[in-house]
Design a protein that fits this description.
With 278 residues, the protein is mainly β. It has a domain of 175 residues: Beta Barrel (Lipocalin). It is built from two helices and twelve strands, in the order αββαββββββββββ. The strands form two sheets. The protein has a ten-stranded antiparallel β-barrel with strand order 3-4-5-6-7-8-9-10-11-12. Strands 1-2 form a two-stranded antiparallel ribbon. The protein is rod-shaped and about 185 Å long. The protein starts with a helix and ends with a strand.
Length: 278
């Protein structure tokens, strides 16, 4: 009985001491042990030190070290491409309807410095004369704006029983009035001499006269010029009134292809040739 009382007393003392230590947080388990489900648990060993060096990353230059300040030495704004240059005045790239041709295709067709050479076919209205083939030349030069001088020469010949030789030369001066860059009024005055030698003498003639010619020049398209005029002369025997119409197509910057016709009292003529402008 006494032993039982001693055991009970010992248990009560031990319980009171354990509860006091737990409340005060002073209980520390022995080193190297832990508690799990009331049983000691060994602690894990610390991780070994790394055997390889941590990875390294490349460093990148700053913006100030990549390219020199503009326009630093060696800087190429075109990156090796040819340097850009602005198109000549009056020229537009990529524009339709021929504007690539620049100024010469916009208003320079209406110049008064030119040389014309052409083939002419002459068709007299007199039944006693046959048609004739020949040549025609015209030279115009601008002295100063708006004055120009002009000279023309034509020659033709036919063969057969009603053959003849025809020649005409004229010289004059004129003034032009530009209504716009593409439309001009002009007037000419001068002298003209005409000669026709026929195998049948009754058709031969020789006549000199004064002429006046009002006309218009119109550049209808970028490369197309149209002309119309009326020549009135003091001649008594040959073509005292002539209506002329002409068209010129610009093939190159200073080179045109021309077609035209003259309708007179005594003779009609049809011609085609080339014109050189400067």
């Amino acid at each position: 009985m006494i032993s039982r009382m001693k055991i009970l007393s010992f248990l009560l003392v031990a319980a009171s001491l354990g509860s006091s230590a737990w409340a005060q947080g002073t209980y520390v388990p022995p080193a190297g042990t832990g508690t799990m489900m009331g049983a000691p648990m060994p602690t894990m060993a610390p991780a070994p030190p790394p055997t390889t060096a941590p990875p390294t990353y490349p460093s990148y230059p700053t913006m100030s070290s990549q390219a020199p300040a503009y326009p630093g030495t060696g800087y190429d704004p075109n990156y090796g491409a040819p340097a850009y240059s602005a198109p000549p005045q009056g020229m537009q790239y990529g524009a339709p309807s021929g504007t690539y041709y620049g100024n010469w295709a916009s208003n320079q067709m209406l110049t008064y410095n030119y040389l014309v050479g052409e083939y002419r076919f002459m068709d007299p209205k007199n039944n006693g004369l046959d048609g004739a083939s020949g040549i025609g030349l015209a030279l115009s030069a601008q002295l100063f704006q708006p004055l120009f001088i002009k000279a023309q020469f034509s020659w033709g010949s036919s063969s057969g029983k009603r053959s003849y030789d025809f020649s005409s030369v004229s010289m004059g001066a004129g003034l032009y009035l530009p209504i716009s860059q593409r439309f001009h009024f002009l007037g000419e005055i001068g002298g003209v001499y005409t000669k026709l030698d026929a195998t049948q003498s009754r058709f031969s003639l020789s006549d000199g006269a004064i002429y006046v010619r009002p006309a218009i020049r119109w550049q209808a398209l970028n490369r197309l010029e149209l002309q119309a005029g009326v020549t009135v002369t003091s001649a008594d025997d040959f073509n005292n009134r002539v209506l002329d119409v002409n068209a010129y197509l610009a093939l190159f910057e200073q080179f045109d292809l021309g077609l035209g016709a003259d309708f007179g009292d005594e003779m009609n003529s049809f011609h085609g040739g080339v014109r050189f402008r400067w």
